[in-house]
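Troubleshooting: if your tokenizer reports a length mismatch, compare your output against this known-good record of 180 residues.
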Amino acid sequence: MYFTALLARTDDGWEASDTELDDVESLDELAELAREAAPDDETVLVCIEQEGAWFGLVRVDGEDDPRVFVSDAARALRSAYGEILLTDELLGREPEDPGALDQMVDLDGTEDGVEDEDDEEAGAAPGGGSDAVPRGPLGDADLLADLGIDAGTVLKLTPDDALSEIADALGCAEVLEAVR
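Known-good structure output:
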């Protein structure tokens, strides 16, 4: 079970709205959705929670690049919503170019694309890079610091109560619960 909401800061405080992410396919599209909810380029937090498994936060401030935090990257990667947040940049991987992948034929130097034993022992993926996704938190844990929630607090939050605790600290628990 997922819960997704937008928290937009306004002159009158925070406003919450539930949102569907079914048509969102990338972090850029998610950031645009958040910007549409923000009056006058104010801060918007996109909150995503998979019950008991992981939570994610995306902070969008005007036209700035979105800032992302995910409580458990390995669990989030198994989720369609998590895949939106876990960009190559956040994972520290080189961006994939689908056109270049189509042109690759046995570039690993072996017959029939079989991996070298050295690559298998090192846990490397074909092509030399590692696709391992870290267990645990990933991203910018400091994304709420100027709102009164330091990185240490964000890192201690659990998926079961993270969004409620964040909303409580921001003074908008009632508006978030209204859309839950």
